[in-house]
Design a protein that fits this description.
The chain is an alpha/beta fold. It folds into two domains: 4-101, 3-Layer(aba) Sandwich (Glutaredoxin), CATH 3.40.30; 108-216, Glutathione S-transferase Yfyf (Class Pi), Chain A, domain 2. The protein contains ten helices and five strands. It has helices at 35-47, 90-97, 108-120, 124-127, 129-137, 141-161, 174-190, 205-214, 218-223, 227-238, and strands spanning 4-5, 26-30, 51-55, 76-79, 82-85. It has a five-stranded mixed β-sheet, with helices on one face. The model has no long low-confidence stretch (mean pLDDT 96). InterPro entries: Glutathione-S-Trfase_C-like, Glutathione-S-Trfase_C_sf, Glutathione_S-Trfase, Glutathione_S-Trfase_N, GST_omega, GST_Omega/HSP26, Thioredoxin-like_sf. One of its GO terms (biological process) is glutathione metabolic process.
Amino acid sequence: MVKVIGNDTPALKKGDPEPPLAPGRARIYSMRFCPWAERAVLYAAAKGIEVEIVNINLAEKPEWYFNKHPQGKVPTFEKDGKVVIESGIIPEYLDGIYPESAILPTDPYLRARQRILLEQAGAITTAFYGLFAIFRENLEGEARDAKIKPVEDALDGIEKLQKEDYFGGSSPGFADWLLFPFFERISLLSSPLSLPSPFPSPRWSSLSSWWGRISSLPAAAAALQPSDAHLAFVKSFIGGKADYDAGL
């Protein structure tokens, strides 16, 4: 059962007070359209832990937030006075403090395999930014192709890694949830950019089937933003004035 609370709430900004956090309550500081923050939200949702989301305006960060994260980035996890940062570390921490719903396997080899898969698929986490560059700069011709090719190359490589229903086997694992936000954004931009090989598509049949399965799960629904709101944010972001409350 998904127990994520407050994911679709306005982003707090400079001058806004810090919301009190009750003892024993878990909180993720996030931003609705940030893929890195979405990793933590997805993982918490998949684990079924009750967690409160506090969204942060990354252009006008509240002064108190720098006490949580020295650089003012998201995500940040907080519970009982303990603060953990970084999107690749928070999920492992959540498995540690909520072991009854651990997603990472206890078997050392299987645990290592999940980290290896994430590392092998890592190109997708930077390649997708090329699509934003096309959107922002209205690139055409060779310049456009140069941004699309790394995305297609990354998808080609990950397609070969997809052996079962999920990267975690018969159910979504650590690698699945940490990769999800980047596939989401490639899928989101495929249509408005009229990509020659959109995602999902038959070119990446295994990954497309995977995407159909995982994006329909309740944990994904807890973190996904409506496409029109997400695109509105992207347009505002590349226009130089990000609307962190797009769609609310």
